[in-house]
């Protein structure tokens, strides 16, 4: 698991996937979320605009990240 520093909270889920390079584009991020392929804190998350905050853990495509406020 790697830590990702966020400068402000909350941040929308699809933006984190895109900016962290877990997907190639925002559109791909939205499709992955809608398809139920993304886990947030161990639960399937289908809301692409889900507000993410420090401490949340995102899992997608074998990669796991934890959000850390800075």
Describe the structure in brief.
The chain has 70 residues and is of the alpha+beta class.
Topology, element by element:
Elements: E1 2-6, E2 11-12, H1 13-19, H2 26-34, E3 39-40, E4 43-44, E5 51-52, E6 57-60, E7 63-69
Parallel strand pairs: 1-7
Antiparallel strand pairs: 2-5, 3-4, 3-6, 6-7
Helix pairs in contact: 1-2
Tally of contiguous helical segments: 2
Q: Main beta sheet: strand number and arrangement? A: 5 strands, mixed
Radius of gyration: 11 Å
Which strand order do you get reading across the main beta sheet? 1-7-6-3-4
Strand content: 25-35%
CATH topology: Structural Genomics Hypothetical 15.5 Kd Protein In mrcA-pckA Intergenic Region, Chain A
Number of strands: 7
Summarize this structure as a short list of keywords or feature phrases.
single chain; 70 residues; alpha+beta; Structural Genomics Hypothetical 15.5 Kd Protein In mrcA-pckA Intergenic Region, Chain A; five-stranded mixed sheet; two-stranded antiparallel ribbon; 7 strands; globular
Question: What does it look like?
Answer:
With 70 residues, the chain is α+β, with helices and mostly antiparallel strands. The protein has one domain: Structural Genomics Hypothetical 15.5 Kd Protein In mrcA-pckA Intergenic Region, Chain A. It has two helices and seven strands. The protein has helices spanning 13-19, 26-34, and strands at residues 2-6, 11-12, 39-40, 43-44, 51-52, 57-60, 63-69. A hairpin with a 2-residue loop joins strand 6 (57-60) and strand 7. It is globular, with a radius of gyration of 11 Å.
